[in-house]
Amino acid sequence: MSSRSSFAGRLSHLPGGMAAVAALGAAALVVTAGVVLSGTPESAPDASIEGVLRSYSAEPDAAWTLDDGTLPGMSGPATVAATDGHRWLISYPVGIKHEFMLIDARSGEPQWNSPVDAGFGDCSINDRRQIGCAVRLRIDGPENGFYLVDQHDGSLTRTADGDDTAAVLGLGPDFVHVNQSGYQVSLRSPDGATAWSRTFAGAAEVRKAHGALIVDTSDDAHHVIDPADGTDRISCTQCTVDVFESGIAVTDTAYGAESVSFHPFTEAGVSDEAVGTARRMRVLRGPSTLPVIAPAGEGSSLDAAGHYEIVDPATGDGLWQIGDPELSKANARPCGRVLSVARKDRSRVFFDLADGARRGAMPPPALDDPDAAIDASSCVGASDDVAVFANPNQLTAYDIDSGAQLWNRTVLGSARDVDGYIVLSEGATLTALRPN
């Protein structure tokens, strides 16, 4: 194990008293021996995890809106359950049941004459573009069981017997099933053959990361699972697991033991060995392609000033860092492929995450325009030249190269990035905004 005890790069002073350090490491970064990767790891399959948007340089119009006039019987908020290119699977409640409709994301047009009623079950799409549904506790219609859905007309073909599946996630050629209690997770083929099954101590939620399966449980445990046999590649408690473009970051949040370890994506999924560990550091939350880490806990030598480092999870190497007493310690915002850092006077500067190149600067927000302050907003995503942030009242877009506000839009709900599109959930409507 080697430790880097001083900045390796050249300090260059930037306007406004900020200093950026272009370095291959930092005092807090401890690099450990790890897996040597050949070639370039593939991008994470779900681009929305990284907050990478299509272009929204001007205020966007609604491309389409789904409501109870489009989705029969809709009685509550709709969500995007799964995507497959321009095919989006929409989940929405009808009373206490879950129904699903396939739409064309370019137009919002339903692709089936009627939705699939999964009852208390769930539907998803696997990597073979098969739509699978666990139908559970139906009073009428198809009996309980697992069905494949014809993508053209929505007709059902039963492939496995009924069970108590409540949640489904497509993973590779198979489907992950979570049972009604939430404690049992299994991987099954479309015809119902079980590859493995595990019972967890807490209720489980499942998500994907580059072909691996992440299971987050209600008792604050997290498991990165090998889909081949269901064994843990990585597991932890009192931690968080964040997915980035080239790997994952596992943050130990236990008081006094705060640290971040980096695990690259490999052809087999995720490496179980960390290629780097940053002691007394934490990951800043927000959708971005690379992790931004900052001091955590008491006693850090860096906690007296705003200090941030950008790390490549594929190698564990620090790419660059920035630190200055005039920087805010709380208001940096990773967003897509950029980072917005704040000074204590609330002015801001954008930097490219990959190399630390300085982009645009922003003056402090006006006192009479609190909605324009990024401090109180979260990142929705960013394109090459525009970053979009949201607060409970509105969306605001900024030109990354000038820092100028480009547009804002009132929002009565929430906004998220779905495959590069901004999607609004407002009451019982789901709206996709048209890129420019």
TrEMBL record:
<dbReference type="InterPro" id="IPR015943">
    <property type="entry name" value="WD40/YVTN_repeat-like_dom_sf"/>
</dbReference>
<dbReference type="InterPro" id="IPR011047">
    <property type="entry name" value="Quinoprotein_ADH-like_sf"/>
</dbReference>
<protein>
    <submittedName>
        <fullName>Uncharacterized protein</fullName>
    </submittedName>
</protein>
